[in-house]
Amino acid sequence: MEKVRVAILDLNNQEFNRGINCIKMQVENYARENELEMYWHVFDVRAKEEVANEHFDIYISSGGPGSPLDTEGSSWEAKYFKLIDKLFAHNANLNERKKHVLFICHSYQLICRHYNLGKVCLRRRPSFGIFPVHKTEAGLNEPLFGNLTDPYYAADFRKFQVIQPNYKNLEEMGAKIMSIEKKRPHVDLERATMAIRFTNEFFGTQYHPEADAKGMKEYFKDPKRKQFVIEQYGQEKYDSMVTQLADPKKILLTEKTIIPNFLKRALPVFEEAVL
């Protein structure tokens, strides 16, 4: 098989973040384990307005800081959505090899706003830690979830959310909600969407499927970061997060499932096999 080209769209605006390195690691691990030749390139979308062209095979669009609402109309966002719309149109051509895109966290919020698939808004309180994510009925058959339990567990760090799904636009697009937020019977708030299959080739998660359990555990063991979490969220939150990071049935399982399954499904050889 020819070399597979992967575009990593970095929306971190040059703010330090483990996510990009985790995405690189996932791509490299998958290539090594499956004896594939995969080339990746990172595009600094927000700070440098670098946007990939449409000639990559696979696209992974990262999370990032700040509001997904305040950048509407910005020049970098216009270039970003121009690429996404071009890939969407490309995939509509039955004779073309499909372009698969994974949207993570901030990117997920942006794409939901762009296609008007729900209300993107500020959460009452930031989400920070490891949380259960519940599959919808459609999500029970989502191939990217593989053998994930229901609920499964995800690293969720965000101030914003996507609620009040626009079912009319979702149906017209052929999109389906695959996961929703944990049940909170004691809180009178709508549960946010957590994963959507936008099309056969476009998939997005509100959480971070690239998060690596081992790396996160070491990251939060740093005394300064530990103290920050305890001061902001409490000792109980910190202890719970560290404990769950050590559980092989939680973040580690999600890490080993979603992105590897996305890459497998996105490979040209896979598409040819199912045509």
CATH superfamily: Class I glutamine amidotransferase (GATase) domain
The number of distinct helices, counting runs of at least 4 residues, comes to 10
Rg from alpha-carbon coordinates: 18 Å
Q: Poorly predicted ranges (pLDDT <50, ≥5 residues)?
A: none
Structural class by SSE content: alpha/beta
Quick recap:
By secondary structure, the chain is of the alpha/beta class. The chain contains 10 helices and 9 strands.
Q: What do these coordinates show?
A:
The chain is an alpha/beta fold and 275 residues long. It has one domain (4-123, 131-211, 254-274): Rossmann fold, CATH 3.40.50. It has ten helices and nine strands. The chain has helices spanning 19-33, 75-91, 106-114, 167-173, 213-221, 223-233, 235-245, 251-255, 258-266, 268-274; strands at 4-10, 38-44, 58-61, 100-104, 119-135, 152-163, 176-180, 193-197, 202-205. A nine-stranded mixed beta sheet has the order 2-1-3-4-9-8-7-5-6, sandwiched between helices. Helix 6 (223-233) crosses helix 7 (235-245). It is globular. The model has no long low-confidence stretch (mean pLDDT 92).
Question: Descriptors for this entry?
Answer:
single chain; 275 residues; alpha/beta; nine-stranded mixed sheet
